[in-house]
Amino acid sequence: MSSNILFHIIAKLEADNAKLEGFYKPSSLEEDGFIHCSYANQIIRVAEFLFVGQTDLVLLEIEKSRVDCNVVDEDLYEGNEDFPHIYGVLPWSAVVATHDFPCGNNGLFELPASIVS
What we know:
- By secondary structure, the protein is of the alpha+beta class.
- 21% of the residues lie in helices and 29% in strands.
- It is built from 3 helices and 8 strands; from the N terminus they run E-H-E-H-E-H-E-E-E-E-E.
- It has helices at residues 12-21, 27-32, 43-50; strands spanning 5-11, 23-24, 35-36, 57-63, 71-74, 83-86, 90-91, 95-100.
């Protein structure tokens, strides 16, 4: 998977609303100053850390080159790993796909077959 592709975990209703509005502006943008994202190989760890038990989730697949604000890879939590952060509103035109991403019955997540890490 290309480093030009980012992912963001979001509730399906939020994704539907963002698609209608033409942009996505989560509360984390106000609180943290950026939108938290992941690369494909980071999705499962993030999901199992933050979203256990949630079944209403989707993954936004974002093409970095379509984002019209700064996207910075950085390690803000001293975890020895860089995560991509979008420093601005995400235009829906940068979202190239959405993938259903429910937590399984066992409480764990699996990458959708449509995503290859």
